[in-house]
Amino acid sequence: MTNQKVVLVTGASSGFGQLIAQKLACGYCVFGTSRKEHPTSQGVEMLTLDVTSDSSVESCINQLLTQTNRIDLLVNNAGQIHASMIEETSLEQAKEIFETNFWGVVRVTNAVLPVMRQQRSGHIINMSSVAGLIGAPGQGFYSASKFALEGYSEALSVELDPFNIKVSLVEPGYFKTNFNQAMLQPTAIHSDYDTVRDVIRSSVDQAIAQGDNPDKVAQAIARIASSSSPRLRYRVGNEAQWLPRLRAILPDKLFRFSARKRLNLP
Ligand SMILES: NC(=O)c1ccc[n+]([C@@H]2O[C@H](COP(=O)([O-])OP(=O)(O)OC[C@H]3O[C@@H](n4cnc5c(N)ncnc54)[C@H](OP(=O)(O)O)[C@@H]3O)[C@@H](O)[C@H]2O)c1
């Protein structure tokens, strides 16, 4: 039992999740998750969780509730990326991406909602992306999974209003984490994509390597978590500010041209 607010951050073994958990640990009782076993460190108690597994989610949430009896903030951060053209990505791989990025969020959210409803309070922060606002070439299914998350979160925010449970989306641009290290690769090769395939892979690697400092995302989440009336959407990072605006004002043809140019695509 604790007097502090209880937070669960999924995917807290690295990148944003680790920074978010560590930042929130000054002031909240924070649990982080990983698929692998991790010791408690910097005030963050680590639980084992694979968001693609019903039984893993059930056991993780049970373990948390046995210790705390409540949950105040859920940060659905765990995610999976791929760099492959849509036609070179098998349906199986596309489903795998959705299992983590979309259904994983749904699973964990479903597991905490009965407790938050009973408390008549709670906050769910879902890690989206600029790729959830604009279709990202070479990351088509990643983008689609984040678009799905956007629609789901918007609907959920209205449904949960009567129970005083808030829902927020964080939409970062590219940030310097190790996200691309576990990037799923094409499952099929079509020679027509030979040039584009390599360019896409190196563009994603370069964008992440030259990305913003991920601490900004952790700071943003700390601010959102402490807000008494959090918004639904928060864009974080330079790209997240200008890219959606550009998308809104440019005609389709011009936007496609600028997207190809940005990614050095032929
Ligand atoms: N970096 C960026 O530029 C960027 C931009 C926009 C949005 N995002 C989003 O930010 C989130 C975090 O990404 P990151 O950049 O911090 O990358 P990261 O360092 O690779 O972190 C990904 C985390 O997700 C966890 N994870 C992956 N699959 C999982 C599964 N099936 N079940 C449970 N946990 C799983 C990993 O934990 P384990 O491997 O330990 O299980 C890891 O802790 C993702 O949702 C991503 O879409 C990132």
Q: If you had to describe this structure to a student in words, what would you say it looks like?
A:
- The protein is 47% helix and 14% strand.
- With 266 residues, it is an alpha/beta fold.
- A 7-stranded parallel β-sheet has the order 3-2-1-4-5-6-7, sandwiched between helices.
- Helix 1 (15-24) packs across helix 6.
- It is globular and about 60 Å long.
- The structure holds NADP nicotinamide-adenine-dinucleotide phosphate.
Q: Sheet bearing the most strands, described?
A: 7 strands, parallel
SSE pattern: EHEEHEHEHEHHEHH
Number of domains: 1
Terminal CA distance reads 58 Å
Proportion of residues in extended strands: 5-15%
Q: What would you call the shape?
A: globular
CATH class (first level) name: Alpha Beta
- Helix percent band: 40-55%
**CATH fold-type name:** Rossmann fold
What's the CATH architecture name? 3-Layer(aba) Sandwich
What value does the Rg take, in angstroms? 19 Å
Average pLDDT reading: 96
Structural class: alpha/beta
Q: How many helix segments? A: 8
Strands side by side in the biggest sheet: 3-2-1-4-5-6-7
Ions, cofactors and other bound molecules? NADP nicotinamide-adenine-dinucleotide phosphate
Which homologous superfamily in CATH is the superfamily? NAD(P)-binding Rossmann-like Domain
- Count every beta strand, where a strand is a DSSP E run of 2 or more residues: 7
List the uncertain runs: none
